[in-house]
Write a structure and sequence with these properties.
- By secondary structure, the chain is α+β, with helices and mostly antiparallel strands.
- It has a domain at 3-114: Aspartate Aminotransferase, domain 1.
- Helices cover 27% and strands 18% of the residues.
- The termini are far apart.
Length: 164
């Protein structure tokens, strides 16, 4: 995969920047967080690394041509020795998921600046006090959703004298 091909895939996504790091790697980032790295020179030329879901990391690294990315495997990055073996559609899917993983970790304000829809946050549902009291979990005067647990008192430790 060339830098032009990679640029045509992910260069137009909101907030994406590209830069050269470590003198040989073309890095694609969103909000200064990397999501794809293409080696452009040397023996590793053409290798593409990107972030994957933690659940898919082992599945993907078991496939031929995909290995854990050096120095970044602990952060669930993989390296493709020959990215063209997967085809353009599959590469676009991998790279867009990597982009999404990085965007999901950004603060909501930064996500809003990108023009991307912020990740939905599940709100806690308040349970009416009557239902909680009826269940016998919390007395009516206590705050709803907070249960007091009785603390067991442990027997006092007896002093042990050591005779010499």
């Amino acid at each position: 995969m060339t830098d032009a091909e990679l640029d045509s895939i992910c260069g137009t996504w909101p907030g994406v920047t590209r830069s050269i790091k470590w003198e040989v790697d073309l890095v694609y980032s969103v909000a200064n967080k990397m999501f794809a790295v293409l080696c452009t020179l040397g023996m590793e030329r053409g290798r593409l690394s990107f972030k994957v879901d933690p659940e898919r990391f082992l599945e993907l690294t078991d496939q031929p041509g995909i290995s854990p990315a050096p120095y970044m495997a602990r952060a669930f990055w993989v390296t493709l020795a020959n990215p063209t073996q997967f085809g353009r559609a599959k590469m676009q899917e991998f790279l867009h998921r990597s982009y999404e993983l990085v965007v999901e970790k950004l603060p909501k304000k930064a996500q809003g600046k990108l023009g991307e829809k912020p990740v939905a946050v599940v709100k806690a549902v308040k349970v009416p006090a009557k239902k909680v009291v009826a269940a016998g979990k919390v007395p009516a005067k206590k705050t709803v959703g907070v249960a007091k647990v009785p603390v067991k008192k442990l027997p006092a430790k007896k002093a042990v004298s050591i005779k010499r």
